[in-house]
Automatic annotation (TrEMBL):
Source taxon at top rank: Bacteria
Pfam annotation, one family: Ald_Xan_dh_C
Name the record gives this protein: Acylaldehyde oxidase
PANTHER family assigned to the protein according to its UniProt record, in alphabetical order: DEHYDROGENASE, XANTHINE DEHYDROGENASE
Organism of this sequence: Lentzea aerocolonigenes (Lechevalieria aerocolonigenes)
Aldehyde oxidase/xanthine dehydrogenase a/b hammerhead domain boundaries: 23-135
Database matches in InterPro entries: Ald_Oxase/Xan_DH_a/b, Ald_Oxase/Xan_DH_a/b_sf, Ald_Oxase/xanthine_DH-like, AldOxase/xan_DH_MoCoBD1, AldOxase/xan_DH_MoCoBD2, AldOxase/xan_DH_Mopterin-bd_sf
Cross-referenced SUPFAM superfamilies: CO dehydrogenase molybdoprotein N-domain-like, Molybdenum cofactor-binding domain
Family annotation (SMART domains): Ald_Xan_dh_C
An annotated Gene Ontology molecular function: iron ion binding
Lineage: Bacteria, Bacillati, Actinomycetota, Actinomycetes, Pseudonocardiales
Length: 730
């Protein structure tokens, strides 16, 4: 097949669904107008551990407009089949309203169904639950934890003992909540034993499988629809209990039920980035070459499930370290289960490694950029595999140039701007490139427009747009002539929009599908005696602006419309897909160099980020404008992680005390300075057929340590705790 010219891919398009979104026409989960729907509000527990001793629902039930109150006392027994498809962690997931046990604060204990949302909310406030409470354990600190994973190469202890320079540090990272703009919500509607769910999710097939497992019905009996998602950052990667509650209520009511979580409830039942305690020991020679790293990360999980995230990769592959040991532990607590949050595992680990690298650089008097370049590996030491592409060195060189790193006085506390101590810092970002099986369907209509679909999600990266770009070029059509559809389990299957795997996976599936469709049209033309292309080799035909033509003789050709009309065809269609190879002989990661400048108020300890620049080695950039949206968003998220975000638990009773957007701090416009993203011009065909390495997670990794290192440079104060507060700097 002759390669198609790339016109849409690489051009800075605005979101194709942007107008729908800004004019309020994009229907998010509970926006859907489902006729006859009633409203449900969840009542959640006010203890973290114990059992329900009584529930008085009489006041709620007698309130006008309240239709039903469902608790563990009147709820039907649910099947809760095991389910390997839904991103459920190992353990025994919460089974809604199946017993009187309370496992964490804010656990759903009842649902009130009413004619209006307001009535349901008031009804929920009238449900009187009594408990027998036990003292919960919700504090990670001081608990040894249970070993989850180990890794070792070389003899780390011996290498540490003989190292010329050693560091031994303990890091503390706060719990963070995802806080997407759109709270989680679901509409459930039954037709006999067939269930339709309109849900906020990053994985419609995951929700489909989980709902089928909970109710013990065939997977094909569940349809999940989710065309728009108002942000998620990972919180919608598994199916949380409110989905089962909505479906259960709809079944009990015999009519559709709408259930939206409140902002407060978003802190209790839809996961979070776990709190970490991380001991890291480094050994190096006087030239700054690392000889050993010993990692002992510990994070929190729930007593009922063991959460896993990718905490160990970076320590094994980021730098050229011959001796590495890792012991990952989890501490099981009376809390809800964590869930992946942007750059999961990597963001937390990179803070510890990259701050420690900065300390090492300072101690040895080596420039922090130079220190990292001295520890560049030539292959992935964890697997022995060569890198598909690794251009971290270029990221640092370009970044140092553009940021003006060379003008830096390495001495901490050496630069002042009025009341502000000014400092700069740098860190490496890295996230693994993942791909998964994905399928797509494409249809070319007689009018010369195409519809392409796959059961993907778009939680904000701009999947509608990027897939449209890939499809448009593969079909030789303009972007406006192609419509990409997603978010429905009736479409060909796609993996979760998580772990930055969607562009590589679904993008490659869309490419394959549209290549097949284009080839079909080309074959039809070259075999058609009435076509000007009759007899031409298919390999010599390209499609440009909807016209099939000989590559080197563009005058010879015809349009899709002419071809289909003459052959009396209403459309052509094709199915395609992408299956990643079972074994890839490469180590695949995206990389970045993150540069930050901060000002710290010398008297108040306030930190302001003054500017930031990240340079990415992320493979091919399909959609530069959307890439900027990701990159700037990742930097903003990183500013939050570094300086503001902190879920605070009152360990006396296990309640989260700042369960609202006034007390859980996230960056606002006033916190955000000039941010700049640069992408190395790349194309990693070893990673996947469209050459991308994933961007959505990478952009968050390395931001918090770059800021922490800049804070050190500004103040001379090293903080090993996130978020970095004014108190820590006074
Ligand atoms: Mo990302 S945490 O995999 O949505």
């Amino acid at each position: 097949m002759s390669p198609q010219p790339q016109k849409a891919v690489g051009s800075p398009l605005s979101r194709v669904d942007g107008r729908l979104k800004v004019t309020g026409q994009a229907d998010y989960a509970v926006d859907h107008d489902v006729p006859g729907a009633v409203h449900a509000v969840v009542v959640d527990s006010s203890i973290a551990l114990g059992r329900i001793t009584g529930i008085d629902t009489s006041a709620a039930e007698s309130h006008p407009g309240v239709l039903k109150v469902i608790t563990h006392r009147n709820a039907p027994r649910l099947v809760y089949r095991d389910n390997p498809v839904s991103n459920n962690p190992r353990g025994r997931r919460l089974r809604v309203f199946q017993d009187d046990q309370i496992l964490f604060f804010g656990q759903p204990v009842a649902v009130v169904v009413a004619t209006t949302i307001e009535t349901a909310q008031h009804g929920a406030s009238l449900v009187d639950v009594s408990y027998e409470a036990r003292q919960p354990t919700t504090d990670l600190a001081g608990r040894p934890g249970d070993p989850l994973l180990n890794y070792a190469r070389g003899d780390t202890e011996a290498a540490l003992a003989s190292a010329a320079v050693r560091l031994d540090r303990e890091f503390h990272l706060a719990r963070n909540h995802h806080n997407p703009m759109e709270p989680h919500g679901t509409i459930a509607s039954w037709d006999g034993d067939k269930l339709t769910l309109w849900d906020k999710t990053q994985y419609v097939i995951g929700v489909q499988n989980e709902a089928a497992a909970v109710f013990g019905i065939p997977v094909e009996n569940v349809r999940v629809i989710s065309p728009f998602v108002g942000g998620a950052f990972g919180s919608a990667l598994r199916t949380w209990p409110h989905v089962a509650i909505a479906a259960l209520a709809a079944r009990e009511m015999g009519c559709p039920v709408k259930l939206a979580l409140s902002r407060r409830q978003m802190y209790f039942t839809v996961g979070y980035r776990p709190r970490y305690q991380y001991r890291l020991r480094l050994g190096a020679d006087r030239q700054g070459r690392l000889t050993a790293m010993a990692h002992e990360p510990t994070y929190e999980t729930s007593n009922h499930e063991t959460f896993w995230e990718a905490t160990l990769f970076l320590g094994q592959m980021l730098y050229n370290v011959p001796n590495v040991s890792q012991t990952l532990r989890t501490v099981s607590l009376d809390v809800n289960t964590p869930l992946w949050m942007r750059g999961p595992g990597f963001s937390s680990t990179s803070f510890c490694i990259e701050v420690a690298m900065d300390e090492l650089a300072h101690e040895l008097g080596i420039d922090p950029v130079e220190l990292r370049l001295r520890n560049e590996p030539t292959k992935d030491l964890s697997t022995g595999l060569p890198f598909s592409t690794r251009r971290l060195r270029e990221c640092f060189q370009t970044g140092a140039q553009e940021f003006g790193w060379g003008r830096r006085n390495p001495k901490p506390r050496s630069t002042r701007d009025g009341d502000w101590l000014v400092g700069t810092g740098v860190a490496t970002g890295c996230y693994d490139t993942r791909r998964a099986r994905a399928e797509a369907h494409a249809r070319l209509d007689a009018g010369g427009t195409a519809v392409v679909q796959s059961a993907a999600s778009d939680a904000g990266p701009g999947t509608y747009t990027s897939m449209t770009q890939v499809a448009a070029d593969a079909l030789g059509l303009a972007v406006r002539e192609v419509e990409f559809r997603l978010g429905d389990t009736t479409m060909p299957p796609a993996p979760p929009q998580g772990a930055s795997q969607l562009m590589a996976s679904v993008g490659s599936a869309v490419q394959d599908t549209c290549d097949k469709l284009r080839l079909q049209a080309i074959r039809l033309a070259v075999g058609d005696q009435r076509s000007p292309l009759h007899g031409v080799r298919p390999d010599d035909v390209v499609v440009i602006a909807g016209r099939l033509q000989v590559k080197d003789k563009p005058a010879r050709g015809e349009t899709y419309r002419q071809l289909l009309a003459r052959n009396n065809l209403t459309h052509l269609e094709a199915n395609g897909g992408y299956t990643p190879p079972a074994e890839t002989p490469y180590s695949m990661y995206g990389y970045s160099a993150v540069f930050a400048e901060v000002g710290v108020d010398a008297r108040l300890g306030l930190v302001r980020v003054r500017r930031m620049l990240s340079v990415y080695d992320a493979g091919r950039i399909i959609s530069p404008k959307l890439a900027d949206s990701q990159a700037l968003g990742g930097m903003i998220g990183g500013i939050g992680m570094a300086l503001l975000e902190h879920t605070v638990t009152d360990h006396r009773d296990g309640r989260i005390v700042n369960a609202n957007l006034a007390d859980y701090l996230v960056p606002v416009n006033a916190d955000i300075p000039e941010l700049r993203a640069i992408y190395l011009d790349g194309d990693d065909r070893k990673a996947d057929p469209i050459g991308v390495k994933g961007l959505g997670e990478l952009v968050k990794v390395g931001v918090a340590p770059a800021i922490a290192n800049a804070v050190f440079h500004a103040t001379g104060r090293r903080v090993h705790e996130l978020p970095i507060t004014a108190e820590a700097l006074l």
